[in-house]
Amino acid sequence: MAVNSVLPPSTGRRQVSWGTPLTYALALAIAAVSIAPVIYVVIGGFRTTPQIVADPAGLPDPFVWDNYARVLTQSNFWQQAFNSAVIALGTTLAVVVLGLAAAFVLARYRFRGREGLYTFFTLGLLFPAGAAILPLYLMLRDLNLINSYYAVILPQVAFSLPLTIVILRPFLSAIPRELEDAAAIDGASRLGFLWRVAMPLSRPALVTVGVLAFVASWNSFLLPLLVLSDVNLHTLPLGVQNFSSQYTTDTAGVLAFTSLAMLPALLFFTLAEKQIVGGLQGAVKG
Amino acid sequence: MTSANQIRMPAGGASASPAGPHRAGRDSARRADNRRKWYEIIGLTTPAVLIYVMFVLVPMGFAVYYSLFRWRGVGPPTEFVGLRNYTLAFQDPIFLDALRNNAIIVFGSLLIQGPIALGVALLLNRRFRGRAVFRLLVFVPYVLAEVTVGIMWKLLLTGDGTVDALMRSLGMGGLVQAWLADLDVVIWTLLAILTWKYVGFAIILLLAGLSNVPDELTEAAAIDGASWWQIQRHVTIPLLGPTIRIWMFLSMIGSLQIFDMIWVTSVPAVRSLGASATMATYMVDNGFFARLWGYGNAVAVILFVISFVAALLFQRFLLRRDIEGAITGRAK
C-alpha cells in the first residue's frame, strides 16, 4: 500500500477513450442528482424570498445580489469562518506532528511492547467520538476549557490520532533500511533521519492525513455545539444552523448563507481532491 | 519486559567481563545509545499517548461511572442508583424508537446504497474522457458538512417548496407528503437524504477497489467466452469483496452514531415524539439539554457498547483478513 501510493498513478500509458453512450448517460444522471440541489441553493441565493415563495423551482428574475451582500456585511459570517479556520488548522497541525512522531517510533524502532502500543492506538478506531461527547463535555468543563478553541481542538486531535497513525506507519516502515544506514554514516542521528529523510519522503501520506483531519474538523458540529456556547467563538456549521433558525422567514438569506458556508469546503475539496480520494483509496488498497 | 531480558542479561554480562577495556568501552557506548533510544521512544510517543488516553479512553470510563448515578451535573454525583438508568432507558418508548430508527438507517443505508453504488461502479469502471470531472461531482455531497446538507434539504422539502413543486409539475402531486413533519414519513425522508449524501462515497470507494482488479483476469475470462455479466459475477465482484466489506463497516459505524444531519433537519417536536430520534440525538436531548447527566451517560454507554459489539462482530466474521491490511494497516 505505502509504496504504491507514493508512486504517481499509472495513467497515460493507455490512450484514454470515449465511453459508450450508456456510460455517459449514467454518469451524467448521477452527477446531476449529486450536484443539482447544491446549484439550486447557490442560485436561490440570487432570488428574493417572495420570488421563491411564488415559484419555488424558478430561476432568478431579476438577479439579486442583496442576499449575499447582506450575509457578508451584516452577519457573523467572517468571524465564524475565522473560528473554523483557526480550529481546523490547529487540529491539523497537532494531528500531523503528534501522529508523525508516534508513527515514526512505531515504524522505525525495535523495542518490546511496540506491537502492543500499536494495537492500543488502533483500538481507538472502535471508539465512536459521538458516544464520548457527554463525559467529554463534563471533563472539559472541569478543566475550565469550555468556550475556548482548545475545547474543540484537543478532543478532535485525540480522535484523529488512531487513523493518522494507521495511515502513516506503513509509509514510514516502507522507507528502505539502506537510507537510514546511509544517513547514519553521514552522521545523522535517528532524529536527524526523521527530520531530513523520513519526513520529506512521507509527504504524500502527511498531506492525506492532514487533509482528512482538516475536512473533518471544518465540518464538525456536535462537539462545537456543546462546548462553544459563546457566540463569538461559533464555527461555520453552528453559524449555518443559527442563521437558519433565527431567520426562518428569510429563505433567500438562508440560501445565501448556506451557499457561502459551502464555498470554502468546495474550494478546498477541489484543490485537495486527489489527496482525499487518494487517502480513501490507500485505506482500501491495504 | 520479563523473560527475554532475563535470558539476555546474563549473556551480555558474561561476554563483557572477560573482555578487555576496549570491549567494555564499546559496550558502554552501546548502552548509552540504548538509553538514548529509550529517551527518544518515550519523548516521541508520550504526547500522542497522553492526549489519546485523556480525551478518548478516560471519558468513556467516566461515562460508565456517571451512568450509575442520578445526577443533574452540579457538584459531585452522590445519588447512586445502580443500573436503574439503563432499565429506564429500555423502558422508554422514545428510546426504543431511537433504536429502531438507528436500525432503519444502518440496514437502509447498506441495502439501498450498496446495490446502487455497485451497479454504478461496475458500469463506470472503464477509463473514459471526463471521468475525473465525474468523480469530482459525485463526491461533492460527501465533502459538504452534514449540517449544511441538512439545512439545504430542509429548505427544499418545506411544504409547497421546491421538491413539492417539482413533483407536481412531473404529475406526481399525489405522492407529496409532509416530508419532515409526518411522523410515519420523516425517518424515510431522512434516510433518503443520507443516501444522497453518502452514496457518492460508496461509489468512489468501489471504483478505487475496481482499479485494483487486474485487467489480465477479466481479459482472460473474456477470451474464454464469458459474457460481461458472467465476468462481473464470477471475477470482478468476488475480488471486490474486501472493499465492499470495508465500506459496509464504515457505513454501519457511521449510521449508529448519526447525529448532525438528524439534529438540524428534524423538527424538535417530531424528534421528541421519537419519530426522527436516533440514539445520539436522544442522548444529547436528555443528557445535555434536559440536564439528566446520569441518564444521558447511561445512553452514551449503551450507544458505545452497541457500536463496539457491532464493530467487533463485523471484524470477527466478515473482515477477518481484510482488516489487517486495510483498516489497521500492515502489522509488519
TrEMBL record, chain A:
Coiled-coil residue windows: none
Q: Which InterPro entries match?
A: MetI-like, MetI-like_sf
What SUPFAM superfamilies does the database record attribute to this sequence? MetI-like
Q: Name one GO biological process term.
A: transmembrane transport
PROSITE patterns from the entry? Answer: ABC_TM1
Q: Which membrane topology term applies here?
A: Multi-pass membrane protein
Gene3D superfamilies membership: MetI-like
The residue ranges crossing the membrane are 21-43, 85-106, 118-137, 149-168, 205-228, 252-272
Q: Where does it live in the cell?
A: Cell membrane
GO cellular component, alphabetical, reads: plasma membrane
Source taxon at top rank? Bacteria
- Does the record's keyword annotation contain Transmembrane? yes
According to the entry, every stretch annotated as the ABC transmembrane type-1 domain falls at: 81-272
Main site of residence? membrane
Keyword tags: Cell membrane, Membrane, Transmembrane, Transmembrane helix, Transport
Family that this chain belongs to: Belongs to the binding-protein-dependent transport system permease family.
The protein, known as:
Spermidine/putrescine transport system permease protein
Which source organism?
Micromonospora noduli
Higher taxonomy = Bacteria, Bacillati, Actinomycetota, Actinomycetes, Micromonosporales
Automatic annotation (TrEMBL), chain B:
Q: Which GO terms describe its cellular component?
A: plasma membrane
What Pfam families does UniProt report for this protein, alphabetically?
A: BPD_transp_1
What does the record list as GO biological process? transmembrane transport
Q: Does the keyword Cell inner membrane apply?
A: no
* Limits of the ABC transmembrane type-1 domain: 99-314
List the subcellular locations: Cell membrane
* Compositional bias annotation for Low complexity: 10-21
Q: How does it sit in the membrane?
A: Multi-pass membrane protein
Keywords, comma-separated and alphabetical: Cell membrane, Membrane, Transmembrane, Transmembrane helix, Transport
Q: Where is this region: Disordered?
A: 1-31
Ion transport among keywords:
no
Question: InterPro entries attached here?
Answer: ABC_transporter_permease (IPR051393), MetI-like (IPR000515), MetI-like_sf (IPR035906)
TM region(s), chain numbering: 41-68, 103-124, 136-156, 185-208, 246-264, 292-314
Q: Which family does it belong to?
A: Belongs to the binding-protein-dependent transport system permease family.
Query: What name is this protein filed under?
Result: sn-glycerol-3-phosphate transport system permeas E protein UgpA
Species the sequence originates in: Micromonospora noduli
